[in-house]
């Protein structure tokens, strides 16, 4: 079986297990549903109808996960510079109440299969390094690895998820044909680094989103602390190689 066939198989299995059907954006009604779902998740508009339609017309990625007729997940990405053969996955979200069904995993595997059929072997995106469940999903469940720390990347966002905190982000690179990614997407175990003398752990809070709501000053202090520790480690060549929900990021200092 070819790698393209394996990617399609893995994507299909994940969607079936999640109880959803994933398909690319087809018409204006589906585009409006995507925009409405993003508004429901983030509490503010993230994209306009005109821009979404232009993205898809230009051959970019926009797909939704459907539970029957209901849109419950969305993922949108666009191409980077042509020579990079990389897709930038700009936004992905799942409807409230859909936790535990792995809809997000099904969407990402659909995106991976879509990219590979077009000769794209790398997908990149950003996420908040303080959100441990997202770090675990990206690094462990998908096999993607952070490659750059981006302080206050978007500026103040003032939405239901980010609040008024600085928008520090980690840029992750998903090398779609890497052995750890192939294993993760197939649902099989891959060897995870355990750390040693040449590595360091960088902790994250148990639930930064709850902390932002209860104690914004404490959340901001976590932001400053993680930035002060993780940004210089990565800037000097340290590589994030794993994440643990209790221990945080594992940074390999051998470079």
TrEMBL record:
<dbReference type="InterPro" id="IPR000182">
    <property type="entry name" value="GNAT_dom"/>
</dbReference>
<dbReference type="InterPro" id="IPR038764">
    <property type="entry name" value="GNAT_N_AcTrfase_prd"/>
</dbReference>
<protein>
    <recommendedName>
        <fullName>N-acetyltransferase domain-containing protein</fullName>
    </recommendedName>
</protein>
<dbReference type="InterPro" id="IPR038740">
    <property type="entry name" value="BioF2-like_GNAT_dom"/>
</dbReference>
<dbReference type="Pfam" id="PF13480">
    <property type="entry name" value="Acetyltransf_6"/>
</dbReference>
<dbReference type="GO" id="GO:0016747">
    <property type="term" value="F:acyltransferase activity, transferring groups other than amino-acyl groups"/>
</dbReference>
<feature type="domain" description="N-acetyltransferase">
    <location>
        <begin position="20"/>
        <end position="162"/>
    </location>
</feature>
<dbReference type="InterPro" id="IPR016181">
    <property type="entry name" value="Acyl_CoA_acyltransferase"/>
</dbReference>
